[in-house]
Amino acid sequence: MAAKVTESYQYLSREELLDKAHELGAAYEQNSFSCSQSCVAALHRILGFPDILVKAACSNAGGTAWQLVGTCGGLVGGIMVLDYYFGRPFEHMSDKELIMDPNVNDLFSSQPIASLLFDKYIQTYGTITCANIQHQLYGRIFYLPDMQEFQKLEAAGGHSNLQKCPRIVGNAARFTLEILLDKGAVEIGA
Length: 190
Hints:
It contains 8 helices and 2 strands. The chain has 190 residues and is an all-alpha fold. It has one domain (3-187). Strands 1-2 form a two-stranded parallel sheet. α4 (73-86) packs antiparallel against α5 (100-125) and α4 (73-86) runs parallel beside α8. It starts with a strand and ends with a strand.
């Protein structure tokens, strides 16, 4: 059975709902930072999954832990939400023996769904890494643990310009919700 959107959003059309995901993702990024957590928070507002998933997404920002060497946090957050709906449950895992079904087969069935979001990133940005996306947006990268570098990012519109980091996160939230809808995990309407 598909999950329903939260009461506040259940009367929106598909396109309105996707626009709302983008709007919320961008707003959370603009006002709270953390690409991964902002993407997950936007989808949490619409879908109402447990708060703990939002907390667990906190440090996948600025690559990984602000080190610029990892995947875009928006993509990581989106995959976390996809895995919440399609990922392998703990009770199917084993530390005693290799079990193909449901254990490993669950893993294999979740990967193509996450790959859909990966593919949207490649189609849109040509990359999945924070550093490469930063370079596209600003013509350079910013080493975020250095407060002077963080201030330079902010001066370049990092979070205040809705066409910069907030747009990337808004797109991630929109792309993720689109996959959830297309795959039947989420249903629109009352």
